């Protein structure tokens, strides 16, 4: 009896948070780590479609680092590009371009499994290199893919969604190059597009696949391992008002198709020009996120996953609150029916 109790405690600790691996300085961080949460789910949940599970994701996932010394990205207007010639403007842009504090590896250890990716070629580059982009250029896409692949190799039961949803300054040659790099990075870990309802953790484990690539471009029809963008809709509220955001999230969940697609609830606020002007020096985190994230998290706590419930939920600065663990714990609600039967 004691052995079984100890096993249950250990399993719960593994699922809901353990001390993460040592950092580069050799000391252990004291942050909650959900590095193996998918592999530690109850067996019943590993038979459900991934579209029915609650999965934490990050918005502009790569933007933990942007390069102030690089040109302004092609995703910006001509007026912004002209302003950026003034030396301090890029420093201010950085405050609004960065939406995450954690690297890919750190996000994965925290439990994030969906990544929102925007990519671009860089003006003046003679090669075909592709970079992440959000106002300013981030790291090379290849470096990010290798960081993710390294984690997946060490955690063979974890699965990620990589959503390439915005492309800038990219012609056919750039797309071919990027797709080739994706294939080189993940190889046999790539799971080919098929019926969403057939995609369960058990199926992925059996095939030793861990990566679903969504590619919002006609190129998705040319490669079996690229999922078309319409299979993962991510409605965008485009508001600075947290009340309007929550109403939008509720409305779009109510409109969710019960089958045929995953669903992303973007629990994020988007600054307008006047928002940026008022909080110019404070940046996104201090102006919008800090004061509204607790309200957004409270909304998350009221949700339930399932065919018509939440699926993937994304947030800015996923480390500021216990975001990933809160989303992961929603999956316990899917077991309530089993528990009720067990007590009968």
From TrEMBL:
A Gene Ontology biological process term: signal transduction
Return the protein name. Answer: Phosphatidylinositol specific phospholipase C X domain containing 2
Q: Which residues form the Phosphatidylinositol-specific phospholipase C X domain?
A: 47-216
InterPro entries in the cross-refs? PI-PLC_domain (IPR051057), PLC-like_Pdiesterase_TIM-brl (IPR017946), PLCXD1/2/3 (IPR042158), PLipase_C_PInositol-sp_X_dom (IPR000909)
**Pfam families xrefs:** PI-PLC-X (PF00388)
One GO term in the molecular function aspect is: phosphoric diester hydrolase activity
Q: Which UniProt key words apply to this protein?
A: Hydrolase, Lipid degradation, Lipid metabolism, Transducer
| SMART domains reported for this sequence | PLCXc (SM00148)
Which SUPFAM superfamilies does the record associate with it?
A: PLC-like phosphodiesterases (SSF51695)
- Lineage, opening ranks: Eukaryota, Metazoa, Chordata, Craniata, Vertebrata
At the top level, the lineage of the source is Eukaryota
